[in-house]
């Protein structure tokens, strides 16, 4: 049963709702659809599922791009309503006739909708009945055909067995393939089976043909497989005895030595008496504004090349010139496909994941389909402008990412601001943690590092070196400890010492490693950090989608909490090594919805920047 149908403008003004249905929706499915799907350029999807405790809906929608209207139908997820798509199309057609931009109330549309709904339901019932009628004779025909083939197979086999010679035996399984077999089992005729090349055989069973029989090949393979299994079984019985493992030699009957630990001795709270190696100087690039040049020569060249290719296929010079002056009536999907394909290829060359590029192009196509092309405007430039708006909308953070303000708010509440750095192996979590610490230090914020990577050899020493260079206290407990407990004790120590921020370093882990992901989920659940930063490489392409989606999925599945914490922000590393291949930023933001908060662009502590959305979008479309 249809729960609700709404018509509203792109500005958010509701023009009409079905009063006949009158069902109060649980939760806020429409708001979630707008926020999570339509504004995030995921409108190319067929439907959207809304799941909250006590409610489960499926939402379908369509646009009237020329009038700027959105039509949304809501129904229970458990139901499969076949008429929803047709109903939306009919409502869109009829409402566009009576729509007036100055009019706000459409009470007279209720009767029209009632008729349209009955018509759509009747069509769906007719289609359902026709499918059931068509399914019955087809099943009967297939049964009869199967019986006939079985009978013919048995008869052919008996005929062939009555003949003599080896060739009669070999052809027993494929009598439906060969014809013209003689009584003595020899064949000198041509055989054709569904386009198979002609096969000739002589009495001595020597194949001198243009193709081979696939059935015989399967038989030979099965025979060979059985023989191989027998040989393997024989060999397995005579397995050689395992050599005894060599034991460590014991001198003078001394007791066994304890496990070696080369970490430097430190006090319980992690403060070590170490000399400062070097005082780092310089201003962090986080506080510098990046200037984006306004040159667009390359964009114009690409647009003109695309236009030439598209226009030369279908239109002459005069026709395309006339359409650019007069303007096209309405853009159709066929008109947009060449420009969208070129745009998709361009995005993929910039290291955007293929799945993301395809979804973006579908969304842009849906938003432009049906719109009127303005005069003196090319299709490619219209598509590029729509894609540029979409990319800016995706990459612009939906919430505040001002960490300095959040730190001061936490300071007023007399508690430290906790940041946890997570990610796969070797992406630079420890190094970029030190960069963030240096940037916070420049703003007169007391920082403490927590060495919770108790798994990788040398991880504690690496973080200790950064702490010594930056003159920052570090909390550590050595190796083979529970990271969640170490982080908890570090936060308690920071509260006692009056530290403003605790930066928690964690072990690198692949997204498929469930034990390590469970430990990370426990660390986040026990300590409730203020910010969970995913550290990822800017070099990844399609793997960015897999990494972030599985990280979020594992954190959600393995957390004991009803409302698990997911990734709050992204730190992209090695940005100085990718030239114009900046697509990883788009892929990660699109798949997770988390903003890019930092960019690592070098080896020194000052090489940390903010994401410049305009610069990234310009590079992607260049």
UniProtKB/TrEMBL annotation:
Signal peptide positions (record): none
Keyword Endoplasmic reticulum: yes
Entry's localization field: Endoplasmic reticulum membrane
Domain of life from the UniProt record: Eukaryota
Cellular component, GO annotation: endoplasmic reticulum membrane; signal recognition particle receptor complex
UniProt similarity note: Belongs to the GTP-binding SRP family.
Biased composition (Low complexity): 142-153
UniProtKB keywords: Endoplasmic reticulum, GTP-binding, Membrane, Nucleotide-binding, Receptor
InterPro entries hit by this protein: AAA+_ATPase, Longin-like_dom_sf, P-loop_NTPase, Sig_recog_particle_rcpt_asu_N, Signal_recog_particl_SRP54_hlx, SRP/SRP_N, SRP54_GTPase_dom, SRP54_N_sf
Gene3D superfamilies: 3.30.450.60, P-loop containing nucleotide triphosphate hydrolases (3.40.50.300), Signal recognition particle SRP54, nucleotide-binding domain (1.20.120.140)
Membrane topology category: Peripheral membrane protein
Short name of one Pfam family: SRP-alpha_N
Protein name: AAA+ ATPase domain, signal recognition particle, SRP54 subunit, SRP/SRP receptor
GO term, biological process aspect, one: protein targeting to ER
Record field: compositional bias (Acidic residues): 296-305
Highest classification ranks of the organism: Eukaryota, Viridiplantae, Streptophyta, Embryophyta, Tracheophyta
Domain SRP54-type proteins GTP-binding: 595-608
Keyword Transmembrane: no
Region (Disordered): 127-193, 282-310
């Amino acid at each position: 049963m249809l729960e609700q149908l709404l018509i509203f403008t792109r500005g958010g003004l509701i023009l009409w709702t079905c009063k006949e249905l009158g069902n109060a929706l649980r939760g806020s499915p429409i708001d979630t659809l707008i926020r999570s799907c339509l504004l995030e350029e995921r409108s190319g999807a067929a439907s959207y599922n809304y799941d909250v405790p006590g409610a489960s809906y499926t939402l379908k929608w369509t646009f009237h791009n020329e009038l700027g209207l959105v039509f949304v139908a809501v129904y229970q997820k458990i139901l499969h309503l076949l008429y929803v798509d047709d109903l939306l199309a009919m409502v869109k057609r009829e409402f566009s006739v009576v729509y007036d931009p100055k009019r706000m109330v459409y009470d007279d549309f209720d009767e029209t909708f009632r008729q349209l709904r009955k018509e759509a339901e009747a069509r769906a019932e007719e289609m359902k009945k026709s499918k059931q009628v068509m399914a019955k004779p087809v099943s009967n025909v297939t049964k009869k055909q199967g019986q006939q083939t079985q009978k013919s197979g048995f008869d052919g086999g008996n005929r062939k067995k009555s003949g003599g010679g080896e060739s009669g035996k070999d052809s027993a399984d494929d009598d439906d393939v060969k014809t013209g077999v003689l009584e003595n089992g020899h064949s000198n005729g041509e055989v054709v089976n569904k386009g198979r090349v002609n096969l000739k055989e002589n009495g001595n069973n020597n194949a001198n043909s243009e193709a081979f029989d696939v059935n015989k090949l399967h038989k030979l393979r099965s025979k060979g497989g059985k023989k191989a299994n027998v040989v393997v079984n024989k060999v397995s019985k005579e397995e050689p005895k395992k050599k005894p493992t060599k034991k460590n030699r014991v001198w003078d009957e001394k007791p066994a030595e304890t496990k070696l630990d080369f970490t430097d001795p430190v006090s319980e709270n992690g403060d070590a008496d170490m000399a400062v190696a070097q005082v780092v100087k310089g201003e962090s690039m986080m506080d510098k504004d990046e200037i984006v040049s306004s040159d667009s020569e390359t964009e114009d060249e690409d647009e003109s090349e695309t236009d030439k290719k598209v226009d030369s296929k279908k239109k002459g010079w005069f026709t395309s010139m006339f359409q650019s002056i007069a303007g096209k009536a309405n853009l159709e999907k066929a008109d947009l496909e060449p420009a969208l394909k070129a745009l998709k290829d361009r995005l993929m060359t910039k290291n955007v994941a293929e799945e993301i590029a395809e979804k973006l192009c579908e969304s842009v196509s849906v938003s432009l389909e049906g719109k009127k092309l303005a005069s003196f405007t090319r299709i490619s430039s219209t598509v590029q402008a729509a894609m540029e708006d979409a990319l800016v909308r995706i990459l612009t953070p939906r919430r505040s990412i001002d960490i300095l303000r959040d730190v001061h708010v936490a300071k007023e509440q007399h508690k430290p601001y906790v940041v946890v750095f997570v990610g796969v192996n070797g992406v630079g979590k420890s190094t970029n943690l030190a960069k963030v610490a240096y940037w916070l230090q420049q703003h007169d914020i007391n920082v403490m590092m927590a060495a919770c990577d108790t798994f990788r050899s040398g991880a504690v020493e690496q973080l200790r070196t950064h702490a010594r260079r930056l003159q920052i206290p570090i909390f550590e407990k050595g190796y083979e400890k529970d990271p969640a407990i170490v982080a908890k004790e570090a936060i308690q120590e920071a509260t006692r010492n009056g530290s403003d921020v605790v930066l928690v370093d964690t072990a690198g882990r692949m997204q498929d490693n469930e034990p390590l992901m469970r430990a990370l989920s426990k660390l986040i659940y026990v300590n409730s950090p203020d910010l969970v930063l995913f550290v990822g490489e800017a070099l990844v392409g399609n793997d960015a989608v897999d990494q972030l989606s599985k990280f979020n999925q594992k954190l959600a599945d393995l957390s004991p909490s009803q409302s698990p914490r997911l990734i709050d922000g992204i730190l992209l590393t090695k940005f100085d090594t990718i030239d114009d291949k900046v697509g990883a930023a788009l892929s990660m933001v699109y798949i997770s919805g988390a903003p890019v908060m930092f960019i690592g662009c070098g080896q020194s502590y000052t090489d940390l920047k903010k994401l410049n959305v305009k610069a990234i979008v310009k590079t992607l479309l260049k």
